[in-house]
UniProtKB/TrEMBL annotation:
Its EC number is 1.3.8.6. The keyword Transit peptide applies. This is glutaryl-CoA dehydrogenase (ETF). It holds the Pfam family Acyl-CoA_dh_N. PANTHER family: GLUTARYL-COA DEHYDROGENASE, MITOCHONDRIAL. Its cofactor is FAD. The lineage of its organism: Bacteria, Bacillati, Actinomycetota, Actinomycetes, Micrococcales.
Length: 392
């Protein structure tokens, strides 16, 4: 039984693709083909070897996937739903590659597009869209992951230059990036700075020992007297609303991406349930297995419909940060549960790399933490419901 069999069975019950426009399906199909042919053949090997295949970056750029939601400057200007569909296809193969597209496009490129000067946009965005230049987004710090307001990295003005000191942690792509969007506290508030990674005093060290996201790169960054000209400061960002707006772009992609990983697991569960025989019949003929499959389908279907509704709102310009928190909290949580249930259907084989389920599960645990933990999004929703903030 092939992987397509599980996909066909799922499509017979819930044909999500039929809800997309022709243009949206075009982006989805291109991403699915790229992920299937360029990433999937080596992803288990790459995960095991902790290898990030940077040579694929220009191919992603040539296909138009990098910063695809941005208009102009060499970017595709695609819809939010198209971008979401692309995120789902990449994460269906591995969360690390959706993360790359997200860090490059939703974080680094979005920061420049939203808050940069025309000179900065012209300098950086075309090369980043083409995959010739890689960016990273340096916000999170070692002691303040969920509390950017406690930022200790500082930037002080000295004549026509800024001097940046501090440390960042869990910064995706930093060791392969050409430019870092560094967020720092200034005497006037929170500022963003475009720091070429070959600048003296900038050091990025990949974090080792990860049991998730092993086919991607996350780093510690040290900033020791890093000097950049005033022209490197993002003129449109002066408060935490700047990086938060970029985080919401990344969170949006996760809403779709997590469901891509869930779909991959569900397809495998369907295949296994129909193909494996115990006690004289397929395991899919047992009531407990069918209950598992039905529950997984319901949560996947609801998650995809939620992603689509949020995407349509984003394209209409009516999406709120609270709605993004609903999507991120629900879809990652349910994707993890779908992966865990699939593992139980696979039995002992589910813990081997013959199937991608444990890899998806480990990756999704990391996705659950970054761009806002479950706890943070829960409190965002609680504040919206009660009018009372429970953060402090």
């Amino acid at each position: 039984m092939t992987h397509e069999t599980g996909r066909d069975a799922l499509r017979d019950v819930f044909d999500f693709d039929a809800l997309l426009s022709e243009e949206e399906r075009g982006w989805q199909d291109r991403a699915r083909e790229f992920a299937r042919t360029r990433i999937a053949p080596t992803i288990e090997e790459d995960f095991e070897a902790k290898r990030f295949r940077a040579e694929l970056i220009p191919e992603l750029g040539a296909a138009g996937f990098l910063g695809m939601h941005i208009r102009g400057y060499g970017c595709a200007g695609a819809s939010a739903v198209s971008y979401g569909a692309v995120c789902a296809e990449f994460e269906a193969v591995d969360s690390g590659w959706r993360t790359f597209v997200s860090v490059q496009g939703s974080l680094a490129m979005s920061a420049i597009a939203k808050f940069g000067s025309e000179e900065q946009k012209d300098r950086w965005l075309p090369g980043m869209a083409a995959g010739e230049t890689v960016g990273c987004f340096a916000l999170t710090e070692p002691d303040g992951g969920s509390d950017p307001g406690a930022m200790t990295t500082t930037a002080r003005r000295e004549g026509d230059e800024w001097v940046i000191d501090g440390a960042k942690r869990w910064i995706g792509l930093a060791s392969v990036a050409d430019v870092a969007v560094v967020w720092a506290r200034t005497e006037d508030g929170i500022g963003g700075f475009l720091v070429p990674t070959d600048t003296a005093g900038f050091t990025a060290t990949p974090i080792d020992g990860k049991l998730a996201m092993r086919a991607s790169i996350q780093c510690d960054i040290a900033l020791d007297g890093v000097r950049v000209p005033d022209s490197a400061r993002l003129p449109g960002a002066t408060t935490l609303r700047g990086p938060f707006s970029c985080l919401n772009e990344a969170r949006y992609g996760i809403i779709w991406g997590a469901m891509g990983a869930a779909r991959s697991c569900l397809e495998i569960a369907l295949e296994r349930a129909r193909a494996r025989t115990v006690f004289g019949k397929s395991i899919g003929a047992f009531q407990l297995t069918q209950e598992k499959l039905a529950t997984m389908l319901l949560e996947y279907e609801k998650g995809m419909l939620l992603a689509l509704a949020i995407g349509r709102s984003k394209d209409a310009g009516t999406l709120s940060p609270t709605q993004i928190s609903v999507g991120k909290l629900n879809n990652v949580r349910e994707a993890i549960e779908i992966a865990r249930t699939t593992r139980s259907i696979l039995g002992g084989d589910g813990v081997t790399n013959e199937f991608p389920v444990m890899r998806h599960m480990a990756n999704l645990e990391a996705v659950r933490t970054y761009e806002g933990t479950d706890e943070i999004h829960t409190l965002i929703l609680g504040r919206a419901l009660t009018g009372v903030s429970a953060f402090a």
